[in-house]
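Record 1 of the preview.
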Amino acid sequence: MKSLYVTSVEPYIGKTAVCVALGRRLQADGFQVGYLKPVSTQPWRTPDGRLTDEDAAFACEALGLGVDCTGLTPVIVTPGLLRQRLKGEAAEDLTPKIREAAQRAGAGKDVLLLEGGSSLRQGYAMGLSNVRLAEMLGAPVMVLARYHSDSQLVDDLLASRARLGPQMFGAILNQVPEEAVDFVEGTARPFLEKEGIQVLGVLPSVPRLSALSVGDLVQRLDAQVLTQRYDPLALVETFTVGAMTIEAALSRFRRQQNKAVITGGDRTDIQLAALETSTVALILTGNLQPSPLIVQQAEALGVPVLLVKDNTMETVNRIEQGYGKTRLAEPQKLKAFLSLMNERVNVKAIYAAIGLS
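->
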């Protein structure tokens, strides 16, 4: 059985999405695929109350593994477990548990995909760093990095190589904005490959992939939906606050597509302007009920009206906490990312690194 360890330099870069996309590609090429997330620091409960990891549950379903998904995360670091560990009350070596889980997940499989920690700093307190796990499981490591600035991108990957050593065979650069592509392709990529870090793919920044669904917004904002019908899977790519004059609002709204407009429930003029343009949702703050005319027109246009108790600033802050951190559970997003991976990632080089023909 071959294996591949996928980790990243920071959280929310797309490790789970990459694992799912690679898994789908491997399956399409005729390989039997297994998946394991050895350690989770984000405990999540299934609808029936069992403790697991949400990313692992999604990967399990997306890859059609047909197994008990709770077994795909053998170590779940709860706040209680961490405190016990730091006090010396839970000093057992957890690597045998992970090794056994890897053997089960990889039984009868051609390839086992291992989703590592959310950063190369994670795991040391529990004795389960990415470096230690990759070495123990004998898996070559692929690192994901996000573009923030020219120097940061190069430094992050050189630091990753310094920590992982020859176990790291390559990297995927994700969420690269259009204005940075020339630097990444023309300068950073040749330099990194000269340093022994194979750049396996450069994925552009795609707003739709970091979008929030209307259903996610309803849950995240604890919102009341005032319209009768709405699509919880509809995606919001941009957000704008309607706190300006009607002339300024119309000018801005016309330039933004697939947006949600956040404004007070008493700003009927802003709400009407939003409904005249490409608006996915109206988010009305301050628990102020809008005019029945607004609800009626929104209903006719298929635009949900979400009423929230928080003021505008509080609402914006809650949205910002989730923006760009969403998973690919929405079918539109998963399909778009699978297409992007197929177009932009050198899958043959990954196959070669893990010993697949």
